[in-house]
Write a structure and sequence with these properties.
Blueprint: E1 5-8, H1 18-31, H2 38-45, H3 51-61, H4 69-84, H5 91-101, E2 105-109, H6 113-123, E3 134-136, H7 148-157, E4 164-168, H8 171-179, E5 183-187, E6 201-203, H9 206-213
Parallel strand pairs: 1-2, 1-4, 2-3, 4-5, 5-6
Helix pairs in contact: 1-2, 1-4, 4-6, 5-9
């Protein structure tokens, strides 16, 4: 099947941000008295909007995170991005092939618009994405695993959900794409294949994705 729209997750798929952001999140939660390992952060929060952190901490401990939690977390992450962030190896080759083949694409991320733009500017991916091709969980009432974000992206890009394919690396993202009625390829660079159940296919590097999309 030739897909009419490729929807990319951002963190871990376009920009190699998951090790950076989950290390910082785990350290910050631990600092606030909620001991969290890096692996636990990946398990519980990878692919989710920041409100999930608030919800799970309160559910588990009965305590609310500080009012400035989001601002402080993003400040630390953005500072680290400026020093360390790189694009996912091979992703620009994939984008170039889509452009050459005339296949539309966009990004739909649980991250904020600011986070997406900071990451794209640092990695040079901003040259590949027009403003109207960027969608954030801020744009919908319910983030992943709800289907709202992917359905919004498809609607705005003018493509029926069943003609879309999503590129995801987290269980929450895969669940969201499947709920939207879209095909989904699971990127296994950070998450084992068995955690990305129900996908159309798995791939472990971007050269494989080029072949899958072709």
């Amino acid at each position: 099947m030739r897909y009419e729209l490729v929807i990319f997750d951002n963190d871990g798929v376009l920009v190699d941000s998951e090790p950076i952001s989950n290390t910082i999140l785990a350290e910050y939660l631990t600092e606030l008295g909620h001991p969290t390992s890096y692996q636990e952060s990946l398990r519980d929060y990878m692919g989710a909007a920041v409100h999930r952190v608030h919800d799970l901490v309160e559910e588990r401990t009965g305590e609310k995170l500080p009012p400035d939690f989001d601002a402080m977390l993003h400040s630390r992450i953005f500072a680290a991005f400026e020093q360390e962030l790189e694009p996912v190896p091979g992703v620009e080759d994939v984008l170039g092939k889509l452009v050459a083949d005339g296949v539309p694409y966009c990004v739909a991320s649980s991250g904020s618009h600011e986070r997406i733009r900071v990451g794209h500017r640092k990695t040079g991916l901003d040259q590949w994405f027009e403003e109207e091709w960027i969608f954030s969980a801020e744009d919908v009432g319910h983030g992943k695993p709800a289907p709202d974000l992917f359905l919004l992206a498809a609607e705005r890009m003018g493509v029926a959900p069943e003609r879309c394919v999503v590129i995801e690396d987290s269980p929450l993202g895969v669940e969201s794409a499947r709920a939207a009625g879209m095909a989904v390829y699971g990127f296994t660079s950070m998450m084992p294949a068995d955690r990305l159940a129900g996908v159309t296919g798995h791939f472990s590097d971007m050269s494989q994705l080029r072949e899958l999309l072709a």
